[in-house]
Amino acid sequence: MNVSAERKLGERIARELYRDPDYIDDPVLSEYVQGIWQQLLGAARKRGELTAELDERFAWEVLLGKDRSINAFALPGGWLGLHLGLISVTTSQDELASVLAHELSHVTQRHISRIMTQQNRQGPLVIAAMVLGALAASKSPDAANAMIAGSQALATQSQLNFSRDMEREADRIGFGVLTQAGFEPQGFVTMFDKLQQASRLNDNGSFPYLRSHPLTTERIAEMQSRQPLGRGAVAAPASFEHSIMAARARVFSYPGVDGLRAFVTEAQRLDGGGASGARQAGVFYAAALASSRLRDAAGAANWLARLGEASRADAKAARLTRLLTAEIALDAGNPARAAELVDIGGAGRPEVMLGSQARLRSGGAAQASQRLQTWVALHPRDAGAWQMLASAYAAQGQTLRAIRAEAEGQVAHLDYAAAVDRFKAAQDLVRKGGAGSDHIEASIIDTRSRQVESMLREQALER
Predict the structure, then answer these.
(1) Residue 424 shares a structural domain with residue 298
(2) Of 300, 323, 346, which marks where a domain is finished?
(3) Same domain as 317, residue 212
(4) What sign does the dihedral 28-30-31-35 (CA atoms) show?
(5) Which has the least CB within 10 A, 54, 124, 253, 311?
(6) Order of strands across the sheet with 61-65?
(7) For 23-37, what is each residue's pLDDT tens digit?
(8) Could you tell me the residue range of the domain that residue 408 belongs to?
């Protein structure tokens, strides 16, 4: 499988993931994960693991799913799936980075392509064995069944062995990428220990990561042997930022009323206790967010205050607290307050998205569209920003631009058929004279329509 074919296969799978109800585009969590991911990509480039061809041709995107199961998976073409359940059980940035580094190494070492090559090699042998089994059926049905079953077992065992070799290679390469990126090496071991202990205590299907990435004593021992001398496999202390991110992932993973109430109860038990500052920040953050979702304004305000006290000394935590305060104000129907808290000119995606949403609800569509225009020019694959820009244009009566923004959002999600429909709707509007004098926008739409139609034809040929 060449690089182009692998990228196309990955896009086919990614299109379905974008449509999955569990897919979540949360600017705060996405920014945090992307920060780790970009550090690892930079390290892979420095080490020579990420070649120039793969770097240019593959997507290198992480898609988040709000599933509470402990799972992450690499897809062809540089796509990565990450469940919030996995984020929620990590106690440090290093543990999360170890999982991402491992999955990144699966992609850079072309493991998926190699697996498919191995399967193609085994295919004729398996088919031949089944044909022989069918011929033997006339003489001895039992012997035929044994031959067929034996051929399948042989192929499965061969594939399993090949996969275990890949797991060891991904551990070795991933460990180097992790340390090159500046993360603590013990993150690998503590994450392995955590998953192994969890699988022993609870084997109810909540840990699919262990089924697709079986842990062995050999893998664990090798990671332990790679630790610097004199340093045990002791987990690094949790940072304020990671504790808060893990808490946010937990709340999104357990959206039911009982789960939300449990987060508030946990905060009540911890309040006034002797937990570390980072631990308190995470618990209070979860309680504030859960209270907001329970429509408990007083409770949300109380836990926000406690969160502010716990995280005052940490700049990153203070920023996340401010963003959560703005988010809760927006959910409570106070967009003006949210706009005050969030600088719409901020460089981060959470500030851009949350600030633009607040401006839209408070009558500042022009300000929101101006900031979003700049953002999508720099990040053309940000579907969420395109959709919000479409809303900002619609609020100003700029229908043609709104339709084009909707189409670009569909392109970012790889849904070229839906994008072509929107472009055609925009062209129909121009023909009917409903576009005013926006000739430049009409010209852009014609050009983009032809480009996306070409992409759609290629997509159809893949099927």
Answers:
(1) no
(2) 323
(3) no
(4) positive
(5) 124
(6) 23-24, 61-65, 79-83, 72-75
(7) 999 999 999 999 999
(8) 398-463
Exposure string of 376-410, with b = 16+ CB inside 10 Å and e = fewer, is beeeeebbbbbbbbbbbbbbeebbbbbbbbbbbbb
Q: What would the 3-class secondary structure string for 260-315 be?
A: HHHHHHHHHHHCCCCCCHHHHHHHHHHHHHHHHHCCCHHHHHHHHHHHHHHHCCCH
Residues 6 or more apart from 345 whose CB is under 8 A from it? 351, 371
- Residues 136 and 203 placed together within one structural domain of the fold: yes
**Whether 142 and 249 share a structural domain:** no
Tokens 């002791």 belong to which residue?
234
CA distance 330 to 324: 10
Asked if 148 and 267 sit in the same domain, the reply is no
What is the separation of C-alpha 272 from the centre of its chain, rounded to a whole number of angstroms? 35
Closest CA to 209 of 63, 65, 71: 71
Tokens of 371: 């900031």
Q: Which of 193, 225, 257 is the last residue of a domain?
A: 225
Q: At what angle do helices 349-361 and 365-378 cross, to 10 degrees?
A: 150
pLDDT digits (tens, 9 = 90+) for 435-459: 666 888 999 999 999 999 999 998 7
CB 103 within 8 A of CB 73: yes
Ramachandran angles phi, psi of 79, nearest 5°:
-90, 150
pTM of the model: 0.87
